[in-house]
Amino acid sequence: MTNPYKVLGVEASASADDIQKAYRKLAKKLHPDLNPGDKTAEDKFKEVAGAYDLLSNLEKRKRFDAGEIDETGAERPPQQYYRDYAGAGPAHYATNAGYADFATGDDPFADLFRRSAQARANRRGQDLLYRLSISFTESISGGSQRLTLPSGGTLDVTIPPGIVDGQSLRLKGKGAPGTGQGAPGDALIEIEVRPDPRFVREGDDITIEVPISLNEAVLGGKIRVPTPTGDVTMTVPANSNSGSTLRLKGKGAPRLGGARGDQYVKLRIVLPKATDPELERFVSSWEAGKSFNPREASR
Questions:
Q1: Residue among 174, 27, 6, 179 nearest 35 (CA)
Q2: Per-residue model confidence as pLDDT tens digits over 29-51
Q3: What is the CATH code of the structural domain delimited by 4-121?
Q4: What mean pLDDT, rounded, does the chain reach?
């Protein structure tokens, strides 16, 4: 990997904003999703991402500028210093030669250091977190959406049926590219379910309030009821009250194993807005209605 400043096309004195702008410009141009099958663009994108990973981290950038780490973020070997031993006696040479042999050949930490440096050079890419907003009906039925990334690329996200607000999906290998031979990170998609004014979800069950007319309440009848997967027809029993709850079996959210929750329908009697003289005359002459006290009956 070449000098990260050269990779991003910026000066060593560039500000953090300049480095970020340069990275975004190159990422939009080289992203693998925009260059399918182009190995050269993919390798260049990984190099750009690695350079940005180093220079966007203030501590890493400071250590790179000081020569403490290299372009991959690996520690540089400590500097070796040599002195003029002219005139030193044979015993002096023998002592230093023995130390040199120990340092280069028998040092138990040398191999560990090399492996550690290699691991840092072949580092796995970072996991990237995104948010995706979906409708309530999509959370119940599932589906797919295309997510546009800040870099300009896109991710196709499959939404499993029954997903809940705040749940995260993991797209393996869709995160930041690794350095060297390191594998790419994952993309973590946090799901935000937009509320639906019609439905309330409680676990795997769904509740909806549906208005009915006085005729439907007294005589019963068939009505259309919305569900997250489409309208269905259900029967309102005769003599139904406001607050009565009916059940639509299997119309709730999917459960593990293939079963589904239920949808509960709360009835609410709604009278016409306009005054109906015929209804007023009937109620005025309805003796049983006058004697019925619902507050007493509900005790």
A1: 27
A2: 887 767 777 888 888 888 888 88
A3: 1.10.287.110
A4: 84
For range 177-184, the mean pLDDT:
88
The CATH T-level fold of domain 128-193 is HSP40/DNAj peptide-binding domain (2.60.260)
Per-residue confidence band for 79, with pLDDT thresholds at 50, 70 and 90 = low
Cα distance between residue 153 and residue 264, in whole Å: 42
CATH code of 199-297, in short, is 2.60.260.20
Judge whether residue 96 has pLDDT over 90.
no
Residue 248's region, left for phi above 0, alpha for psi from -120 to 50, else beta, is beta
Cβ-based burial of 5 (10 A; exposed 0-12, middle 13-18, buried ≥19): buried
pTM: 0.56
Residues of the chain with CATH 2.60.260.20: 128-193, 199-297
